[in-house]
Design brief:
The complex is a heterotrimer of chains A (296), B (448) and C (282).
Chain A (H helix, E strand, L loop, with lengths): L2 H21 L2 E2 L7 E2 L3 H8 L4 H32 L6 H11 L2 H11 L6 H8 L14 H11 L2 H13 L2 H9 L4 H29 L3 H11 L22 H11 L3 H23 L12
Antiparallel strand pairs in A: 1-2
Chain B lengths: L5 H22 L18 E6 L4 H17 L3 E6 L4 H9 L6 E4 L4 H8 L6 H6 L9 H6 L1 E2 L2 E2 L2 E13 H6 L9 H11 L1 E2 L5 E6 L10 H4 L20 H17 L1 H9 L10 H4 L2 E7 L2 H8 L5 E4 L16 E8 L6 H13 L1 H11 L6 H5 L7 H11 L14 H15 L5 H20 L2
Parallel strand pairs in B: 1-2, 1-3, 8-9
Antiparallel strand pairs in B: 3-11, 4-5, 6-9, 6-10, 6-11, 7-8
Chain C lengths: L1 H39 L4 H4 L13 H8 L2 H32 L5 H13 L3 H13 L7 H4 L7 H12 L3 H9 L4 H12 L1 H17 L2 H7 L8 H12 L3 H21 L1 H12 L3
Helix pairs in contact in C: 1-14, 3-14, 4-8, 4-11, 5-8, 8-11, 9-10, 11-15, 13-14
The chains are: A mainly alpha (296), B alpha/beta (448), C mainly alpha (282).
Chain lengths: 296, 448, 282
């Protein structure tokens, strides 16, 4: 029963991991055979690569800003729905709907909506007397713009919170009321402990997703730059504006599949693997679902 | 006899290293150029897979010439893949997908493709078939080879000039296009109009780097700026011409306001759509390639416009008349299944006068052979003539090939974008960093 | 009593109004983007480039024009092929694996489970290069097969999800069947699969949606072959490659969205349960 899955792990996980490490010590462009260059790629990565630190910084931004903001919004909306006794049906569907939108479509839509010149958002802001920023076209605003997008599609996280908020036994609240607890105390002592596992889960999956943040940033850059990349290829717009949206995984893609420095890109991959492993080790122990104990 | 004489040991080491080298190259599939037939085959057969970057209207023009080739060679079927940019072309060649002939929009890949072997050395074919290379100009010849290896042939050239909207210029009292950058700026600011809320309605000239064809490579020739030194390292930081161009461009953009220009630019139509800002009159003057004349004929035939060489830096008026030249280049891929037919197609596209003239008339690109340039069939409008003159001008130049392709231009433009938005550090320090980045990147790709 | 009760209930009414006012406000913000995209999809190209919210003339023909601009039918077909095959292959391979991990004791099951978790959580970019090289040597780049075929050998996230679901089925059912002399395969197919239908459906839906929405995979493997593009990738490349403008891009955005929303409305319950399962149970 497990044979195909084990084979799959070997071919698509174990072998590529080892091969990545090997390639990371070579110069390799896929046209000719890999050429061993020792630690050159790593030396370049840590001391000379002009963009890797900015790319890592941008990815970090998504990890420490996007993830918590998304989770808090989702929690807030879920809490509001539960309080208003609208935890299912129309309202839930409404708030979940954006999460269904294919990411590419959502990004294309947002870049259009937030177009500084002609988009509806700045048009409406102008109507109420606010001079809107340049959003996706301004290096200082491009990441916050994607943050708004991330908040818009928080539905999947919200659903998990809804379920866990509804799971909190009603008797606990009643007992707390009898003890004279104020509503914030009920929230702190009753609700929070009950949803901690879910909170941890959403943090872990959020961080993992943020580490590989790619699609939204790449598509936003390409669409917002408005560049016709006829002839050049998509790598030309990645990071726009001013590399403010250049994430680590995008940089890996550019070096690997746009510049065809597969050896160097493998070095970037190995570093990503190391970082992700540390994150996983720290976070993984805290999620019960990821531990094998329950099996038999 | 001493069994361990130093010479013998040296010979042994040499033999071993030669063996290792042989094994190593034997592994790599680069050994494809070895043998070609002594004479061109009398009758060609099979399928040629032809990848090019043109799309939509332009792809139809290319297809018409391919049809002519098929008619002339009934045994050959050409399998055309259009809309393939450099990234995709490289991907396909590297992955060994069936690419026979690849046509790229830019000369920047030549260094990379020649040195990696992605494109074959065409030397043997050229010698065998006695192709006369002197029919191409020296610039064109220089950008189609790398370190003595000719791995590509020129398929028409592009060069860049200034387009101006005659009506808009006349309404502001101008009858002639600018000849220097300060004239350009002065006229542009006079031609700029604003909405009631202070946002830009129309721009005289859009100074934003990255807008349509505004690129460092296209501006460089205006001040005679250089890219790489003889040893292959970056010359950017040490060249005062770049500093001059950048300072001018930043001053221009600040005179209007970066945010205003940025907001205006983001609301403009796509470069290759009918809503191109020059064609809609939203910008009065624009830097663009000769191919724009074909787009205007097709999309906005009623536009009254003129063309001129780009204005030069104020202290380089002697360069007026020149500009940036680049070209479409084509080569035969490493893994070509049908190299003879591929070579026949390549030769047809790049040296047959009829084919070149037909392509040129359709795409409005500059022909690259002397015979095609002199052909009476070549349709030359006054606007297009400007670009033929730029191509022939002695001050025109191109970007040098490098093992990192256009990577060095990318590094520079990344910084220029930061600089124009005001977030770059001091210019001298910034450019020194650009030099360092480029040198390191070249060393990583091609160093020992 | 009444003196005390009145403000209480008034406060409740106020709270009710307040809560619903906030909900409505957020709700409008959440639905507005889709509404504006829809409105723009009906504008002329010229109007979409101006500052306007509502079409002056309604260009329903945009929905026909978009099919003439790009091979949208083919792209939808590719997306469907990718999503359906990936889902089918995944189920065939991952259901048995998940069952074995959930209910069969064997040495090394802990290690194997850990491997699956790590494979599921590690960024795919870590392993992308050697896998790309592998497929290029098989001359399968330029097609969607490198994205479809691996599912025959299991998908880590699906195995994880299915295992979570199988764990919620009481052991006794399987034990009873085993006592009746059923093989493990028989237990799985006759007892577990029928009981786990909602979980299997959820895993299938996730796979389907992930494949439908995938951008990175098609970017890597099919970018050089427009004939193989799925619709999500086509949409991303649309504006830069075809020099098209906003209105028709928005038309295509709506078209990409529609199938997903339709499927969701038919399978809402399964979907919500599936999401909940990943995070809450287990």
């Amino acid at each position: 029963m497990l044979a195909p899955a084990i084979l799959g792990l070997l071919i698509f996980f174990v072998y590529p991991l080892i091969a990545s490490v090997y390639y990371s010590f070579t110069r390799f462009d896929l046209v000719s055979a890999p050429q061993w260059i020792g630690l050159r790629n790593y030396a370049y990565l840590f001391t000379q690569d002009p963009n890797v630190w900015q790319a890592a910084g941008n990815t970090l931004w998504f990890v420490v800003i996007l993830v918590p903001v998304r989770i808090l919004t989702a929690l807030g909306v879920a809490w509001l729905l539960v309080r208003a006794k609208q935890a299912s049906g129309f309202w839930r569907t409404l708030f979940y709907l954006p999460a269904l939108v294919p990411p590419v479509a959502a990004v294309v839509a947002f870049v259009f909506l937030f177009n500084p010149g002609t988009g509806p958002v700045n048009l409406i802001l102008k109507a109420i007397g606010i001079h809107g920023p340049l959003w996706f076209n301004d290096p200082a605003w491009s990441k916050p713009s994607l943050l708004l997008l991330g908040v818009w599609v928080m539905g999947d996280v919200m659903i998990i919170f809804l379920a866990s908020l509804l799971d909190v036994p009603q008797e606990l609240y009643e007992a707390a009321s009898l003890d004279g607890a104020k509503s914030w105390q009920k929230g702190w002592y009753v609700t929070l402990p009950a949803i901690v596992p879910v909170l941890v889960f959403s943090v872990v999956t959020g961080v993992i997703a943020a580490l590989q943040y790619f699609t939204e940033a790449a598509v936003a850059s390409s669409v917002a730059s408005g560049r016709a990349t006829v002839g050049e290829g998509g790598g030309a717009t990645i990071g726009y504006p001013d590399n403010s949206l250049l994430t680590y995984t995008e940089w890996l893609y550019v070096r690997g599949f746009s510049n065809y420095q597969l050896g160097y890109a493998s070095a970037l991959a190995v570093v990503l693997f190391a970082v992700a492993s540390v994150v996983l080790l720290v976070l993984l122990r805290r999620v019960r679902a990821f531990t094998p104990e329950e099996a038999s | 006899m001493n069994r361990h004489s130093p010479t013998r040991r040296a010979a042994f080491v040499l033999a071993m290293s030669a063996a290792v080298a042989l094994v190593a190259t034997g592994c790599s599939p680069a050994a494809t150029n070895s043998a070609i037939d002594a004479t061109a085959p009398a009758k060609l057969t099979g399928t040629v897979s032809f990848w090019h970057f043109f799309s939509d209207r332009e792809a139809k023009v290319v297809q018409s010439v391919v049809d002519d080739f098929e008619k002339a060679n009934p045994g050959v079927k050409v399998d055309v893949h259009s809309g393939q940019d450099d990234e995709k072309l490289q991907k396909a060649i590297a992955a060994g997908n069936s690419v026979d002939v690849g046509l790229s929009y830019s000369t920047d890949i030549v260094g990379n493709f020649c040195s990696s072997g992605a494109f074959r050395d065409l030397g043997p074919y050229i010698t065998r078939d006695k192709v006369d290379l002197t029919q191409f100009s020296t610039t064109v010849r220089s950008y189609t080879e790398y370190k003595g290896t000719r791995c590509s042939m020129p398929v028409l050239a592009d060069d860049y000039g200034l387009y101006y909207n005659k009506k808009l210029l006349a309404s502001a009292g101008y009858s002639e296009p600018p000849r220097t950058l300060s004239e350009l700026e002065k006229m542009a600011i006079a031609l700029t109009t604003y909405n009631a809320d202070g946002s830009i309605k129309t721009l005289g000239f859009n100074p934003m780097m990255g807008f349509y064809e505004n690129a460092a490579s296209h501006l460089g020739p205006l001040a005679g700026a250089t890219w790489l030194k003889k040893n292959g390292n970056s010359a950017i930081g040490g060249d005062a011409a770049w500093t001059e161009l950048m300072t001018w461009q930043k001053g221009f953009i600040d005179a209007i306001g970066y945010d205003k220009v940025n907001a205006f630019t983001s609301g403009l139509g796509q470069e290759f759509s009918a809503d191109n800002a020059f064609q809609t009159g939203q910008v009065a003057m624009n830097l663009d390639g000769e191919y724009r004349t074909a787009f205007i004929d097709d999309q906005t035939p009623n536009l009254e416009y003129g063309t001129a060489p780009l204005p030069t830096a104020d202290d380089h008026t002697e360069l007026y008349g020149g500009g940036y030249i680049t070209g479409n280049i084509a080569g035969i891929s490493k893994g070509a299944k049908n190299p003879e037919a591929a070579w026949a197609l390549l030769k047809y596209l790049t040296t047959d006068t009829g084919a070149i003239v037909k392509l040129s008339n359709g795409l409005k690109n500059v022909p690259t052979t002397s015979a095609a340039l002199a052909s009476p069939d070549l349709e030359v409008t006054p606007q297009f003539k400007t670009f033929l003159d730029i191509a022939a001008n002695e001050h025109s130049g191109t970007t040098p090939p490098s093992p990192v392709g256009a990577g060095y231009q990318q590094s520079f433009e990344d910084y220029w974008h930061k600089y124009q938005s005001g977030s770059g550090t001091g210019l001298a320090a910034g450019l020194a960093k650009v030099d360092k980045d480029i040198d390191a990147s070249i060393a990583l790709t091609a160093g020992p | 009593m009444t003196v005390v009760a009145a403000p209480r209930s008034r406060r409740r009414v106020l709270a009710w109004i307040g809560e619903h006012a906030i909900l409505v406000a957020i709700g409008v913000l959440f639905i507005a983007p889709i509404a504006f995209v829809f409105l723009t999809s009906l504008m002329s190209n010229k109007q979409a480039l101006t500052a306007s919210l509502i079409p002056t003339t309604w260009h329903w023909e945009n929905y026909v024009r978009v099919f003439q601009t790009v091979p949208l039918g083919q792209w939808f077909g590719n997306s469907a092929l990718y999503a359906v095959l990936a889902t089918g292959f995944m189920l065939v391979s991952s259901v048995p694996a998940a069952y074995a991990l959930a209910r069969i004791r064997f040495r090394g099951s802990g290690v194997l489970f850990l491997c699956i978790i790590v494979a599921m959580l590690l960024p795919p970019q870590v392993t992308a290069i050697p896998i790309y090289v592998m497929w290029s040597q098989l001359h399968l780049t330029g097609t969607l097969w490198p994205l479809i075929l691996p599912n025959l050998l299991g998908d880590a996230f699906s195995i994880f999800l299915l295992r979570q679901f199988f764990l919620t089925i009481p052991k006794e059912y399987a034990d009873a069947a085993r006592i009746d002399g059923c093989s493990e395969w028989a237990v799985l197919l006759r007892v577990i699969v029928p009981m786990a239908r909602p979980g299997i459906a959820a895993a299938g839906l996730f796979m389907f949606f992930n494949s439908w929405n995938d951008y990175y995979g098609p970017l890597l493997y099919t970018s050089e072959n427009p004939a193989a593009w799925p619709v999500a990738y086509g949409l991303a490349s649309f504006r830069s490659v075809h020099g098209t403008d906003w209105s028709i891009t928005m038309t295509m955005t709506i078209l990409v969205l529609v199938p997903v929303v339709i499927i969701f409305f038919f399978a809402q319950k399964i979907f919500v349960e599936g999401i909940t399962l990943t995070g809450v149970k287990g």
